[in-house]
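## Example record

The block below lists the input lines for one assembly entry, exactly as stored, with component labels intact.
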Amino acid sequence: MPLAYVAFYVVIIGPVDLWQLLARPRIAELLSNTVTLAIACMAATAALGVSLAVLVERTDLPGRRLWHGLLVAPLAVPAFVNGYAWVSLDRSVHGFSGAFTVVTLSYYPLVYLPVVAMLRRLDPALEESAWSLGHSRARTFRTVVLPQLRPALLGGALLVGLHLLAEFGALSLLRYPTFTTAIYDQYGSTFNGAAATAMAAVLVMLCLVLLLAELRLRGNRRYARLGRGAARSAVPLALGPSRWPLLGVVGAVVALALGVPAYSLVRWLVVGTSTEFPVAELTEALVATVALALAGAVATTLAAIPVVWLAVRHRGWASTVIERSTYIANALPGIVVGLALVVASLRLVPGIYQTAALLVAAYVILFLPRAVVTVRAGLEQAPIVLDDVAHSLGTGPLATARRVTLPLIAPSLGAGAALVFLAISTELTATLMLSPIGTHTLATEFWSASSELRYGAAAPYALLLVLVSIPATVLLMRSDSPATKTERVPV
Amino acid sequence: MSSLTITGVTKSFGSGASATRAVDDVTLHVPHGSFTTVLGPSGCGKTTLLRLIAGFLMPESGTIAFGDTTVAGAGVRTVAPQARRVGYVPQEGALFPHLDVAANIAFGLPRAARGSQEGNDRVVEMLDLVELPTDFRDRRPDELSGGQQQRVALARSLAPQPAVVLLDEPFSSLDASLRGSTSRAVRRALEATNTTALLVTHDQNEALSLADQVAVMRAGRLVQSAPPSEVYLSPTDPQVAEFVGRAVVLPGTATDARATCALGEVVLIEPTNGPVALMIRPEQVFVDLAHDEGVRGTVEEVSYYGHDCAVQVRLDDGTSVLARMAGVRHPGPGDTVHLRVTGLVRAYHPAGTT
Amino acid sequence: MTTSPRRATARASVALAATLLTASTLTGCGVFGSPDLVVYNAQHEELLDEIVPLFEKESGLDVELRSGKDLEMANQIVEEGEDSPADVFLTENSPAMSIVDNAGLFAELPEAATAPIPDEYVPADRMWTGFLARSTVAMYNTETMTDADMPASILDFADPEWKGRVAFSPTGADFQAIVSAVLELEGEQATADWLDGLKDNGVIVQNNLVVMQSVDSGEVDAGIAYHYYWYRDRQENGSDSDSSALHFFGNQDPGAFLSISGAGILDSSEHKDAAEEFVTWLTSTEAQQAMAESYALEYPLNPDASLNAEVKPFDELEPPKVDVSALNGPQVTDLMTAAGLL
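Predicted structure tokens for the full assembly:
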């Protein structure tokens, strides 16, 4: 739907005006900023993710289990908290170098995780046959292992790209102007801004490009999957004396990605130049966050059910269209959805502007794909044959749904709701734009504090946000299914 | 329990020029309390037929009746599956994974009965029937073996005392060793409850050993419907003959009750005249190791199965035939043997049918 | 992994209960009993939090404060129109007031409310009144610059000699108010040129606090902001103002622009009496002095109230004469967009 809105509005502006709005040097500047950062970060996270994955999975690096957990942990720190952590410690962290550092450190787990999963699943028999044919270890890695890693690697990198396009908080704090930050600023000045919408259109184009690439990749990935998975694990590479410097490298990554935010948070909590601990506001924000997240989670999960039902049980062009469109929504940044809803509601249904209902609607749009993926996995565990059997035993369609289908998908409904709940709790951009005046969530309170440089006041909110993120990260780590590889991390 | 009567049922899929008739004008009667198997290769339409009877599909023409009640067909309000009182055991058993064995079995019982002592008794009764220990009632489906799951699936379908029970290749997913014991247990359970049953399979051993009546389907049509021995010994045409067992088909010339062929003179089941195709079962080809009477040939290959063996023999005139004999004493490759045919032989006219 | 049906239903019922709780909380909006007055406040929340209790104690009225940002709230009020629950609208800068005024949504203020405020800070139609003011200033780093190095006019910051040396924050309503003053005083072309120059030569940061920090740390030599940031920092611990000082342009230069915080009563309000009481109180000596003594350090417009001596006295400011109701927000945005600042 927001896609439709953007398209509609673009048409209204008219091609001439649209060109004028877009052919500004500012747009070129934003475009170059966004694209260069995206490419640089995708490359860096890919390189970093693969190297770390290989080090942890395929060598005899000491303490591998521990490193694995630590390397994944940065996912629990929302990127904007990470940005805050760096900027609050050292103001010179900003611009391209700052953005590049923080984004890479925040998002490399998105590449690391799938590559690790893939490495675990590889059949060592392939490598062993290559060795028996005389290839060196290094060559084997290049010619046998790396090509098989490619889908996971590319998929992860594309995911990083999508996240980066949608990233607002971190890039704003780091003073690196991209489309998202510019849209937000425009929005802050004028609300029906044609300029904002034009920029949103460009942003959406970029996202779609990445999304199509991801879709194309996933299609191929199905055929790249091999047999039944490794029966035994691969022989680890002995590192020898290079072990210690490599250990140092891994340690350095963890220190930067995890240690810096941790240290920064603790420091600001303790030092905090602003006034006392605002218990009342903290509680109020917490309650509001929980309430919104609950409402959003329930609404999203309920909305997911008919979508999944159609997709799984009644395969046809209509259901494919619906499923694809929810997937496209996956690529829409929070800011675009927020903007679209602001303007759509102002033009069409002014009554709901600035209400919680509109915000919940934004959450549903943003996170429906996440719920759909989880609920779908659940429904596929309830094959139609069970319905047939139930009918033959005398239960009508409604009773069957109640007694057979619902209990079977209940765990995945719960899981989907939980994931959406956690995602909403840490959402920043759409909430900033749509939350009713006077409603503050943890994310918005954090934002108002940190953008006014009240770092001490922002710290408790940041801490709570991280705490809320942890369960979602754990869930993400556990499940290995390809479905979760499309999960997105808070923006 | 009631009988099952299918009359002239047709069902097609697809539309226009590409429409295929999955079930083509099938007429079949399963008497009350008896067990019929529908035998045919994959894609012959047998599963579609089953789903039509269960009510998951609607026939385009023809009628389906349980006893005196017509449940589907022209001019009659189609009865929905949940109202047909039909037991359905699918290929994978399809036990409800979220319920334990007792709850699975009791699923089709009326709500009042489910929690009560009466329901409990019925569950125990069903477990006995399918020869499973009573303490299985608290187990979950993923704790059972394939064969045990199928038995529970059968118990579940029998518990609400259905009119007819339909089984869709229930043993094909089991290990070979389990197949025999499970199928026999199923047979016993159905007999004990005097249930009208229809089982669909592609395995001729299953079809012949379990059923009172075998219905052979091919490309949507019902080709023959008769007791197992009749189907085996008097198949309607050579294709049925070869589907139901190994067959040696030789050209020959018939004169009344006898015919001559490469294996010598044979006695026909029905007198006929003229050129015929003779269908001889390998076990009818007697390998005479003691005497030199009969047609001479050289052994090409011996496949030893322990209890019996299959001997491929090339006759002097070049024809290759298969003979089956007990495994205690058998010839080796290259040996010269003499063959003759025992028992009555079916003859087909070249058009394919008698 | 299959959870038992019991656990699934338990989870479902918890979710249901929570949804009901949520629904009731959200619809109730957390208000126990309805307030006597709803104030849409775009001035700093901390300031209002400090002084509103004083009003509540004196008047016995219950005030609900909803805080947000200038333009956001102005636009919302315009959208809400007749149905707006707002009784009083307070802004940080005046262009936002004009937006609402031009939509015809204000009610004329009573005499008592506008009487204490000098005429130049009250629009002619008396649809709203100024109650606090802030002066535009240039901050400069004392280690590299002196007051004499500062340009004569704020417009000079657009010159190439300032390349990379002056910080400003274009995205806030604060700076946009300054631009609106430049527009009003110098006209469209001059404003466009000035903005182009700033775009080429200035350093963009995200808000005025960062401007101050950048100047203080020496990253830039100078910055454009409002006066109170510096004074507040000096009052706290001075960590961001040790190495900087303020330069007041004076001479009616656009750089001495005094931006007015406005207060107005919505015509659609159902609590006009309470609203009038509030705005009258806001401009009274008592409230004005309370605001002067608060942390905010913005200039009270009631001449009977004054800030402490550390702040440059109001009389010495020499601001340019600007018709407060003529400051145009939307045109400013267009100009800034054209210059590539937005």
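Chain C has two domains: 37-133+259-313, 134-257+330-339. The radius of gyration of chain C is 23 Å.
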